[in-house]
Amino acid sequence: MAIDTETLESWAKYESGPIDSAQRTHNRIQNELKSSNELSEVNFDPYLQGSYANYTIVRSSSDVDIVAQLEDMYYSDLSDLSGSEQNRWRSNSSDPAYGFHEFRADVVDVLESQFGSSAIDPDGKAIEVNTSKLPLNADVLVCANHRDYYHYPNGYHEGIAFFDRSGTKIVNYPKKHINKGSDRQASTRDRFKETVRIFKRARNYLVDNNELDKKNIPSYFIENLLYNVPDGRYTHDKQDRVAKILEYLNRTDYSDWSCQNGITDMFGSGPAEWNTRYADQYVNAMVDLWNDW
What we know:
This protein is of the alpha+beta class. The protein has two domains: 15-172, 2-Layer Sandwich (Beta Polymerase, domain 2), CATH 3.30.460; 178-292, no CATH class. It has ten helices and seven strands. It has helices at residues 5-12, 16-34, 50-54, 83-91, 100-115, 174-187, 192-208, 219-227, 238-251, 276-292; strands at 44-49, 64-77, 120-121, 127-129, 138-151, 155-163, 169-172. α7 (192-208) packs across α10 (276-292) and α9 (238-251) packs across α10. The longest helix has 19 residues, at 16-34. The protein starts with a helix and ends with a helix. The mean pLDDT is 96.
């Protein structure tokens, strides 16, 4: 028996309140960073990312993901360049006087001075800000520009780079993710993002009923999975749409799919990649939920 239309309508619902709270949280943190003495001469871009930025948020208690992107320097990947191009890059490049680590330390100092050191946890990939002074708690990801070169000097994909606790560099492309999500929203006649909300709320239902472990099924990868589903599966009727998408996912080999940003692999062993075993668990659980509702 299929999931009833009333439930799907509820799971698809967009709530403006959490988005407004996220925007106010972002504005407050942006204002504190931009008006600080420590960062007054630093060129950086603070912006929303994640479910709030993509309008796919389903639980208003979620922390707001905010990026603070240093634009005065960039990291690079030269592996796709020829030897001569790599040499040209090295001859034209030098270490910055003010880099990622100095920028991150200054961001931590500003946040601690404005919200109190007890409200700030700087030890993870993102700086956690937990305080009643903000509408919502926030995770501030400090990063720098990253260029993934395929031709020097002007051929590169632009993204961000940051470091985990072990010092491993992680590269991602949040602005491309947001832009391509907006493109898919248009090409599916505004059905993509509400479908992501349906599948995320279904994941939450399965987690609440002990069918899945939430840490293995991140919202980010649910969105990436659905991004790769052809537009023709996004039909007007929600029951028909979910059935067609599940049928497609259940019979398709998605192990070589790319992320929504169009650059990085979705699956692999890297720190920003998913495991196909967890994707299979999610798809199988969704099919069972649909059939046994």
